[in-house]
Amino acid sequence: MPIYEYNCPKCKCKFEQLRPLSKSGDDSGCPKCNTPSKRAISKFVSRAKDDLSMLNHMPSSGGGSSCSSCSSSSCSSCGK
User: Fold this and answer.
1) d(CA 67, CA 38)
2) Tell me, what's the pLDDT at 26?
3) pLDDT of residue 16
4) Distant-in-sequence, close-in-space partners of 11: CB < 8 Å, separation ≥ 6
5) What's the rounded Cα separation, in Å, for the pair 44 and 41?
6) What pLDDT shows up at residue 47?
7) How far apart are CA 7 and CA 15, in angstroms?
8) Tens digit of pLDDT per residue, the chain (80 long)?
9) Is residue 15 within a helix (H) or strand (E), and if so which, with residue range?
10) Beta bridge partners of 39
């Protein structure tokens, strides 16, 4: 089930609600004042394909490399 964000028009409370997709357009009662509240526009992060490919060449926090072609702690040493 997706989590939806809501803004209360009365007390200005911002809250999240876990709801089935079939109720995605329905208002939700504010947990503080029980006022019917409309869904807010949620923020999200989007990454380009090039950004994700860089993750394969970043050293892990535990030392060593996440690159499968070497065991160096720095990807600059293997040229990738």
Assistant:
1) 46
2) 94
3) 94
4) 30, 32, 33, 35
5) 10
6) 72
7) 7
8) 899 999 999 999 999 999 999 998 999 999 999 999 999 988 777 777 665 555 555 555 444 445 555 555 555 555 55
9) strand 14-18
10) 6
Residue 8: both structure tokens together: 């209360």
Instruction: In whole angstroms, give the CA distance from residue 12 to residue 7.
Output: 6
Q: CA angle 59-61-65, nearest 5°? A: 25
Taking the C-alpha atoms of residue 29 and residue 7, their distance in angstroms, rounded to an integer, is 10
Residue with tokens 């007390």: 11
Q: What sections of 1-80 are H helices per DSSP?
A: 49-55
**pLDDT attached to residue 73:** 58
Residue 50 CB coordination number (10 Å): 7
pTM: 0.53
Amino acid at 12: K
Instruction: Measure the CA–CA gap between 44 and 27, rounded to whole angstroms.
Output: 21
